[in-house]
Amino acid sequence: MNTLVFDLETIPDLELGRGLYDLQGLSDADVAKVMFFKQKQARQTDFLPLVQHRIVVISAVLKTREGIRIFSLGRDNAGEQEVVQRFFDGLERYSPELVSWNGSGFDLPVLHYRALKHGANASRYWETGESDRDFRYNNYLSRFHWRHLDLMDVLAGFQIGARASLEQVAQLLGLPGKLGMSGDRVWEYYQQGRLAEICDYCETDALNTYLVYLRFQLMRGVFDRTRYLHEVRDLEQQLARSEQSHLREFLEAWKGSRDEP
Fold first, then answer.
1. Which residue in 151, 152, 186, 202 is deepest, having the highest Cβ count within 10 Å?
2. Residue 61: CATH number of its domain
3. Which structural domain, as residue segments, surrounds residue 126?
4. Long-range residue pairs from 166-172, CB within 8 A, at least 24 positions apart, any chain
């Protein structure tokens, strides 16, 4: 089966914020400040409700028989509607196993709301066996099916109190981790026009998740050690061939910290 490890980055949905709080005439920065303030008042956190997020990039590591691709939907300044539709078009084309870190709790619900807003065609994603029997007992929607593997959820045994951050698990396994960037800086970077750096950061998150996934496949016996090391070498060679500085930086940090079993 094809495998698609994905991650997305978001900013406040300013259009929604203006409507919710009657903020017509305010600047984008001021609208965002009000949205964060309102959330802080209500929930003691400025992390916005998922329905108030707008997607700026979806990054992925795609593994097929042809090899490994590392890419970002949105790097070309495509609008959100196009980014969301291209993601679901990829599911239609490859029918991959989806792999995420907290995808059930964040990435996929955000994608649901944005696809709903834009009227995206996501029929393959929502398939539960009506048109394809293979999806009846293994689809993207059931928490306990494996067509979408949320590593954070699974490794925690579906217990909220046992959850760990991707950064913590990356450090546990000797992976590069965040490399100086974090998700709470995405809005700041976006306002400064630093979309490329947001994409770079999102891709490194996807790479960390992919490497955790490979170790998980070894742990649960899907890969033996020979297969696991083969998959690791494939990724290493792909990164070494890249001319993108953030991927080379990731490779160098990985070489300096790797802890293979």
1. 202
2. 3.30.420.10
3. 3-257
4. 166/101, 166/102, 166/205, 166/208, 166/209, 166/212, 169/212, 170/208, 170/211, 170/212
Which pLDDT value is given to residue 178? 87
Dihedrals phi, psi of 109, to nearest 5 degrees: -60, -40
Q: Concatenate the DSSP letters of all residues of 28-93 into one string.
A: HHHHHHHHHHHHHHHHSS----GGGEEEEEEEEEEEETTEEEEEEETTT---HHHHHHHHHHHHHH
Q: Domain total for the chain? A: 1
Who's near 232: CB < 8 A, 6+ residues apart? 211, 214, 260
Alpha-carbon gap, residue 85 to 81, rounded angstroms: 6
Residue 257's pLDDT is 66
Intervals of the chain under pLDDT 70 = 256-259
Amino acid at site 182: S
How many other CB atoms are there within 10 angstroms of residue 192's CB atom?
9
